[in-house]
Design goal:
- The complex is a heterodimer of chains A (349) and B (313).
- By secondary structure, chain A is mainly alpha-helical.
- Chain A has a domain at 69-282.
- Helix content of chain A is 72%, strand content 2%.
- Chain A has 13 helices and two strands; from the N terminus they run E-H-H-H-H-H-H-H-H-H-H-H-H-H-E.
- Chain A has helices at 11-35, 40-52, 55-80, 88-103, 112-141, 145-165, 200-217, 219-229, 231-236, 241-268, 279-289, 294-318, 323-344; strands at 2-5, 345-348.
- The radius of gyration of chain A is 21 Å and the shape is globular.
- With 313 residues, chain B is mostly helical.
- The radius of gyration of chain B is 20 Å and the shape is globular.
- Chain B has one domain: ABC transporter involved in vitamin B12 uptake, BtuC, CATH 1.10.3470.
- Chain B has helices spanning 2-8, 11-36, 44-60, 65-89, 94-116, 143-147, 152-170, 172-182, 184-189, 194-220, 232-242, 247-270, 276-294.
- The chains are: A mainly alpha (349), B mainly alpha (313).
- The interface between A and B is large, with 45 and 42 residues.
- Chain B: It is found in: Cell membrane.
Chain lengths: 349, 313
């Protein structure tokens, strides 16, 4: 038995691979649910109703999918250029704290329509700035950006902790370490009344479309793909590798920072150190499930949010720890890698 | 200035250095072993978490402490097997597979822990490894309390470091390991099967990583809680580069790193007006700085992160 590279990738397999990967991940997670002594199919049924059963649940799932789309895009654009940005978690937090700082400052006397885009930009810039550090270390000292971007996540969260314990601490929070809330008029308008769903979802979907167009229709898109597929070849063909990577870094870090900004302005209005339940890391999974396709990111983020929101309800009803959602989603990353492999290779006897 | 000297002159500092270094020694050696065969294992953070959980859980359910360590090591080897199957047999991205293993292993740890131990206001504990006294040595002034009041796993980690240095440089097995990481095609031509070597190195390395995690719950602390590994795995990956992929230097690097960590912990009490977060950031910033200084100078295994497929160039 040996593996043989396929001449071309069959479209059916490419389309089916994420679905097969998710089914396989659900099957393996099913063993863990069964091991806990719960009926597996009922548990999955409850995850679905927990995520979409009521109007409130559905809006909650979409609210949760919003930051995942943005961090998923952040990972997808970077990975396509073989820039391993694993620091979306830290970039998310820096974006969030930037918005909390500016949104509660003198700037907040500006009218909403001016201030909101300004805060979006500020959050994105904070995310960019953080990712530029690992890129600089890679270009200047040949340091693998995986480890440095990962390590900076811890630094960023500690920095946020320092800020909300110090200069940005909300004096009205009964001693809890949380930042001052952003001004009322910077909060994003709701998409649906009496829910948490806000226009950040629209921003995320528009961002996915823009990234798609950027990658499919522009020189930058071609260059970033070339940088990922074959860096030496790209340089030989005249692609400015360093400059392309800087642009990719800004786009990727910017999207992750924007995710943090939108989460503060759309949902929480202030920053704590548990603002993100791992949105940055989950973004990596979202990107891989989407096969790095920006439009696929929308669907993959919805799947991931479904698991997380649905597992909350299922957990309450059946006594299965909510961590089953994290397990399933992480498993789907591994199964997706294998699925992608079999779109490229086949087994020959 | 005298405050600094007081810190360095305290036996407690040096005892803490060895204690803090132990999980890093295990983890760094595990990562080093894997990378010497040509495979980066970013599953380390999750494997350490799982080892911490499963080792603790075994002891909590009545196993003795060494059985707990063994259970952790076996669990690590299993995750290593998954990593090897995906990165060696299928040749998938070592970066993404490793991150996937980390996310999977850590969430699985929390899931199993939550199932086995219901939520309680105070986490349940086990009786951890006790410091052993070395006859004669432990009674020496200063040196005794500084170096010879550790638990057995700490000494074990140092023995493993020396043993690994011997194996890597002085045995045919070590030669096969290095060849697989430098030039698997040449290894194959010499009758070494790089695929088997890589499987073995990844699994053994992952077992060491899990033991490093188990040290946290069975010696350094006595209970398990989520996020307790706190990036130690990533620090180990940085330490491998700092050590230039040499086991002896890995031991030195882990000790040096632990020295700074133990030092800053004590400095916090002296410099009370500096936010504590600044001190907590230090290990991560230090790791990044070490990478920047050493990355170009370090001798990377030439086939690191290159999948090997027989008969393909």
């Amino acid at each position: 038995m040996r593996l043989e590279r396929r001449e071309h990738r069959p479209l059916v397999l490419v389309v089916l691979s994420p679905i097969l990967a998710v089914v396989a991940a659900l099957a393996i997670a099913g063993i863990l649910i069964a091991a806990a002594g719960a009926p597996v199919l009922e548990a999955y049924g409850r995850i679905l109703t927990g995520a979409f059963g009521t109007r409130l649940a559905a809006t909650e799932t979409l609210t949760r999918a919003t930051p995942l789309m943005l961090t998923g895009l952040a990972a997808a654009v970077a990975f396509r250029a073989r820039l391993w940005n694993i620091g979306a978690e830290g970039q998310f937090y820096l974006g969030a704290i930037m918005v909390a700082a500016l949104g509660s400052s003198v700037l907040s006397s500006l009218p909403g329509p001016v201030l909101i885009p300004l805060l979006f930009a500020a959050g994105a810039i904070a995310g960019m700035a953080l990712m530029l550090v690992p890129l600089w270390l890679r270009l200047r000292f040949s340091v693998d950006e995986v480890v440095t971007s990962l390590l900076l996540n811890f630094v960023a969260v500690l920095f946020v902790s320092m800020m909300i314990d110090g200069p940005l601490k909300d004096p009205l929070a009964f001693g809890w370490p949380q930042s001052m809330p952003v001004a009322e008029h910077t909060l994003l308008p709701k998409l649906i009344e009496r829910s948490r769903l806000h226009i950040g979802l629209v921003v995320a979907i528009v961002a996915a479309l823009l990234v798609y167009l950027l990658q499919a229709r522009t020189v930058f898109g071609l260059q970033s793909r070339a940088a990922g597929l074959n860096p030496e070849g790209a340089v030989f063909a005249g692609v400015p590798l360093g400059r392309t990577l800087v642009k990719v870094t800004c786009l990727s870090g910017g999207l992750a920072g924007l995710a943090g900004a939108i989460e503060v302005m759309g949902v929480k209005s202030y920053v704590t150190t548990d603002l993100s339940p791992g949105y940055g890391y989950a973004g990596i999974i979202v990107a891989m499930l989407a096969n790095l396709n920006p439009l696929g990111v929308i669907a993959a983020a919805l799947f991931t949010a479904t698991m997380f929101v649905g597992a909350d309800g299922m957990s309450r009803a059946m006594g299965i720890p909510t961590y089953i959602a994290d397990v399933t989603v992480a498993l789907s990353l591994l199964t997706m890698l294998v699925a992608i492999f079999f779109t490229q290779y086949r087994i020959r006897r | 200035m005298s405050a600094f000297l007081d810190i360095i002159a305290s036996a407690g500092l040096w005892a803490a250095v060895l204690r803090i270094a132990t999980p890093l020694i295990f983890g760094t050696l595990g990562a080093l072993l894997s990378e010497r065969s040509g495979v980066l294992n970013l599953g380390i953070e999750g494997i350490m978490t799982f080892g911490a959980m499963i080792g603790w859980l075994a002891v909590f359910n009545g196993a003795d402490l060494w059985t707990g360590m063994l259970v952790a090591a076996l669990s690590g080897a299993l995750f290593g097997l998954v990593h090897a199957a995906m990165t060696v047999s299928l040749g998938l991205s070592q970066h993404v597979t490793g991150l996937g293993i980390t996310l999977f292993a850590s969430s699985l740890s929390y899931y199993i822990f939550r199932l086995a131990v219901p939520l309680a206001s105070t986490p349940p504990t086990v009786t951890p490894f006790q410091p052993i006294s070395v006859p004669g040595l432990s009674d020496l002034p200063f040196i005794g309390p500084a170096l010879f009041t550790q638990t057995l796993p700490t000494y074990l980690s140092i023995v493993i470091a020396l043993l690994l240095a011997y194996i890597v440089y002085r045995t045919p097995l070590g030669l096969a390991l290095r060849m697989s990481g430098e030039n698997p095609h040449a290894a194959e031509a010499q009758g070494v099967d790089p695929i088997k070597v890589r499987y073995g190195a990844i699994m053994a390395g992952s077992a060491l990583m899990a033991m490093g995690g188990a040290f946290l719950t069975l010696s350094a602390f006595n209970s398990f809680f989520p996020t307790m590994v706190q990036g130690r795995g990533w620090i180990c990956i940085a330490l491998v580069v700092f050590a230039s992929w040499r086991p002896g230097r890995a031991l030195f690097g882990a000790l040096l790193f632990a020295f700074f960590d133990a030092f800053q912990l004590r400095l916090q009490t002296v410099l009370g007006n500096v936010p504590y977060q600044i001190f907590l950031m230090m290990p991560y910033i230090l790791s990044i700085a070490a990478l920047a200084v050493m990355a170009r100078r370090a001798r990377v295994p030439q086939a690191l992160m290159q999948p090997y497929r027989r008969g393909e160039r």
